[in-house]
Amino acid sequence: MEEYNSGDEAVFNADEVNISVKECIEGVIGGTDYNQNKVNQWTASIVEHSLTHLVKQGRPFKYIVNCAIMQKSGAGLHTANSCYWDTATDGSCTVRWENRTMYCVVSVFAVVL
Amino acid sequence: MSDLQKFQRRERYSHGFRGRTRDSFSIVSNLDEPHHDDNAQLAVTMENTYQMGPYRRMPIPAVTDILKDVLTNYLHEAKYEVEWSQGMTKTICEVIRARVKDLMIPRYKIVVLVHIGQLTGQSMKVSSRCLWDASNDTFASYSYKNSSLFGLATLYAVYLE
Fold first, then answer.
1. Per residue in A53-89, pLDDT tens?
2. Is the pTM of this model over 0.90?
3. Which class is domain B60-159?
4. Which residues in chain B have Cβ-Cβ distances shorter than 8 Å to A96?
5. Where are the domains of chain B?
6. CB contact under 8 A, A64 and B111
7. Residue B134: its chain A contacts at CB < 8 A?
8. ipTM exceeding 0.85?
9. DSSP A26-79
10. How many C-beta atoms lie closer than 10 Å to residue A89's C-beta?
């Protein structure tokens, strides 16, 4: 167990993560309009697919993925996050996506094992 | 080419690019990339503690009370305004994090997420999934609503082994 070499793999790579999250969002809701009946399964699948892709990277991290989908109605929305962790190894990434009828905000937090 | 023409050319290009992506676009913000100090490059070998789990778990009722307390105090009778909400989201985040830290639960890392939004009859869905150790890690959330805005606070606690 002491021989485990962390090296580069134990640092959160935000660029890879935001690319895969963007692809997940586009795959699930790209080209669709806001639909009250389906939004439940949309958020669930965006979050599940993002998590699966993150796990496939095989890094020694615990992940928290949060997704908010909001209908566009001229209303304002503010989101903030605050984290108490080891800044040398842990990181977060937020992706904001929108189309004509809705906003989608996905936040990924990665905490080293 | 004058500077003004260069600027206009860039504007037209960006419009065209946006059209190609089927009228949706995304912005990415990484506010928290891990950064190394030079001292951290030296490998630190920790001695074995033989500790199998946390001695004290994160108390969910106490944490939910903190979330409820902070949200109610800061948002009670408040009216939604753009700049005020921007500052208030960050303030509430910091306050929640400080109060949960004061509980002095050792070896837990904390992530706090706060959403403040205007109520205009729109619909919104927030969901999250976590890949962690279900026996030690946990979360708490609370939502507050008044006549003009809603506030949602979520806290994730991750145990450091």
1. 888 888 888 999 999 999 888 888 888 988 898 888 8
2. no
3. alpha beta
4. 26-29
5. 60-159
6. yes
7. none
8. no
9. HHHHTT----TTTHHHHHHHHHHHHHHHHHHTT-SEEEEEEEEEEE-SS--EEE
10. 19
